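Running log. JK asked me to keep both predictions on one page so they can be read side by side. First protein, sequence followed by its tokens:
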Amino acid sequence: MKHFLTLLLFLLVFMGCEEDTSLIFEPMTFGNKTCENCALIEIDIPKAIGNKSIDEVVNTALREEIISILKYDDEIDVSTIDSAILSFQKEYDKLKSKFPEESTKWEATVKGTVTFENKQILTIRLDYYLFTGGAHGYSSIRYLNFDKTNGKELGNKELFKDIEAFKNLAESKFRAEEKIPMTSSINSTGFMFENDTFYLPENIGFTQEGLQLFYEQYEVASYADGPIVLVLPYQEIKKYLPQAFF
């Protein structure tokens, strides 16, 4: 009994000493004041506040992505989310001054969600919708992947040990899901891969279900087809990922 209590005490102390690597977030909301002449802007993203070395990297990456989504004129110097909102509103004001009869408001909504986190990796997904006139708006997502241990944002190539080997696997899974024969052209059923060659999308992110490959509208198919999404379970792709990730 004495040995059991000693072992139990050791385990409790050991577990208590383990470092909690989870990031701490608080919701951060931005928007435009509701008024008759204001564009509709709603931004809801997580802000890392745990004083870890990765916090500033995450918050900076989120800020830059929001700016790139809202910034309408590349010649305007925009460095904050508030100034990006202001630039979006100014462009809407310019349109209203040229076409006073235009009654449809511009819209911009962005929502950020943590889709995956373990000791090494953090992934945040940004879902956004933009409407700046025309027949319809545009909605899409962006994945931001971070290496928590090394305190940096990861590019797509850094997600894999061998990106070419992973691409070959992804193509076979893509063909199977979209019913494209392996002996046929990748575009034989109506896709629009450049040079008739399969490639990975710009948006790749970790989720609870697996690694998601997200092809935006127009990226490899027509607008009517919508986004093309492929989710690869981790048990099928683990050998292609750096060992430290899992």
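And the second, directly underneath as requested:
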Amino acid sequence: MPINIPAELPALEELLSENIFAMNDARATSQNIRPMQIGILNLMPNKIETELQILRLLSNTPLQINIDLIRFDETAPKNTPASHMQAFYHLFSQVKNKKYDGLIVTGAPLGTLDYEDVHYWPQMCELMDWAKHNVQSTFYICWAAHAAMYHYFGAQKSLLDGKLSGVFNHKVQDEQNELMRGFDPEFWAPHSRVAQVNRSTYASISGLEILAESEQAGVYAAATTDKRLVFVTGHPEYDTATLEQEFARDTQSGLLPQVPSNYFKNDVPEHGIMVRWKSHGNLLFTNWLNYYVYQTTPYDLTQLT
């Protein structure tokens, strides 16, 4: 079954060119099934790029999915046309009366700020409280994972000595957990962040399980035992060139960034990129949709509590 997205969304043409089964909303209305309702709160600066990355991962499933792109306010982002935001995004205030099978909250380049200094932190807290009762399972990525750990459990982050950027080896800690089903015992995943939450903090929280971690990058995936909250500190959605683009941007800004680890062949940018995370990124989202969302959500979403 396909992912259902608006006919005019730029990501649709790209997905179809990749032979990904996507259909527009007009065709979807003729399908006599109950599609999954998935919200995406996109906090990344380049909205269109992130939309495509997330939608590509959500499309690898036999389930039909309806997507709502969500934002907090009408502030125009620097890297996305205002017309795009007006055409395709819903204000959170407009959708918070709905219930969702799943919600994805992306990362954001806010790691150096205290949470309370983020200008939309009150709205973020409202959304996280709302999601506990109106979403079956919420998938928090990178900065959002740390923010949610802080909001729900009081987990403090600490700034790293430098930016953690690259593709790192991880080990599965619970192969029986359905989110890790089909994973190799060791796998690679991208990270791009400046802060971390200590492993001991995750381990101290009752009802929270560490599912995968890295010696270099720390805890990668954790989830509550009721499957309602998923925390992923890396970026399984990243495209081939995303870390390269971030490295070039930081270099041009005079930040003197370190070359992303284990990303370029021989760690030399001119030697090309080693892509070795995409299959597990797809598997992670497929497992979440199937086992944490579809297998647990009520058919009648009004019954969700």
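Observation for JK regarding the second prediction: The radius of gyration is 19 Å.
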